[in-house]
Write a structure and sequence with these properties.
Serine Threonine Protein Phosphatase 5, Tetratricopeptide repeat, alpha+beta, 9 strands, 6-stranded antiparallel β-sheet, SH3 type barrels, 56% helix, 2 domains, 327 residues, single chain
């Protein structure tokens, strides 16, 4: 009976010590969180290490250590902390992402890609990993892969101006200037809605590098109290050898008016030169007198209600057959 009582007392002693250890670990963890909030990072590191010493499987402490090391740009230490946490819980979505970010900052792009993909595999709606995966792809010039990734990110976070800007950059690098300008434009609108005019002006510079017409439209958002006709817009280049390509089917008219007689039509992909602009053009509606390779000429509405229907042709093909027909 005495032996049995002694075993029970010993068991209670160890159980009590375990509870005390856990309570002590929790106390150190709480102190660590408070130290982070106070930006006392050295003390926070000490507190989380004390927590781990008492409770080695505390994943949150490893995550917080990685976070602090990231703030201090101690990437090697951050990577070690995140890896230790993931060894305990390999299904931590955020930690895979944070490890990927630290690897990216360390210049280990391929390893970072692996971690971002693991994060997405665990949570297909975790937008930060899509965004960072797109960022790495842009730096590696893997534009065929970055565009679908950033499109998925936008479905999750449609109001992210940074994702719009990155997608704009990807389209610009692949010579899809109208699509690039559209995403820069959307980023600019979001910045304006968020009262960030400085960022909106930077977006305008990106827009103008892709499309003068869309840049003109964005000017009406930057200066809403001005009439479109009073805003100075950037005119098209007057180079005689510059060619353009339609991105949608269009009618060609006798004059620069929607009510004017249709004298022909051109299919998507048709190439043409701009002879002159209509005198009453605005950023929202613009007419151009054009001439095709076959010599067919007429007026075309290149911008209708803010939608640009053509883009610059980087490498004209004089042997390409003309699409569409003349009436």
């Amino acid at each position: 009976m005495r032996t049995h009582t002694l075993i029970i007392l010993i068991a209670l002693f160890f159980l009590t010590n375990l509870v005390w250890a856990e309570e002590s670990a929790e106390e150190w963890f709480t102190k660590g969180i408070k130290s982070v909030e106070e930006k006392n990072y050295e003390k926070a590191i000490y507190c989380f290490n004390k927590t781990i010493a008492l409770y080695p499987d505390n994943v949150s402490s490893y995550s917080n250590l990685g976070y602090i090391y990231s703030i201090k740009e101690m990437w090697d230490e951050a990577i070690k902390a995140y890896k230790k946490g993931l060894a305990i819980n390999p299904n931590d979505v955020r930690m895979h992402h944070d490890l990927g970010f630290s690897l990216y900052k360390k210049g280990m792009h391929d390893n970072a890609i692996e971690e971002f993909k693991k994060s997405i595999a665990l949570d297909s709606r975790f937008a930060p990993s899509y965004h960072m995966l797109g960022t790495v792809y842009i730096e590696k010039k893997m534009f065929d892969q970055v565009i679908p990734i950033l499109k998925k990110a936008l479905k999750i976070e449609p109001d992210s101006p940074i994702i719009h800007c990155n997608l704009g950059q990807a389209y610009k690098e692949t010579k899809k200037h109208i699509l690039a300008a559209d995403h820069y434009y959307q980023a600019g609108i979001i910045y304006l809605n968020n009262k960030n005019r400085e960022a909106a002006l930077l977006a305008y510079e990106d827009i103008i590098s892709c499309s003068n017409e869309i840049a003109g439209i964005f000017l009406t958002k930057l200066y809403p109290d001005e009439k479109p006709s009073d805003i100075k817009t950037l005119s098209l280049s007057e180079e005689k050898d510059k060619w353009y390509i339609l991105i949608s089917k269009m009618n060609v008219r006798k004059s620069h008016s929607i009510n004017s007689e249709i004298i022909g039509n051109l299919a998507e992909g048709s190439e043409f030169q701009i002879i002159k602009e209509a005198p009453n053009n605005t950023p929202l509606d613009s007419w151009y007198l054009i001439k095709t390779r076959s010599g067919f000429s007429g007026w075309l509405c290149g911008v209708y209600k803010g939608i640009v229907r053509y883009e610059t042709l980087s490498k004209p093909n004089p042997d390409k057959p003309e699409k569409g027909r003349d009436l």
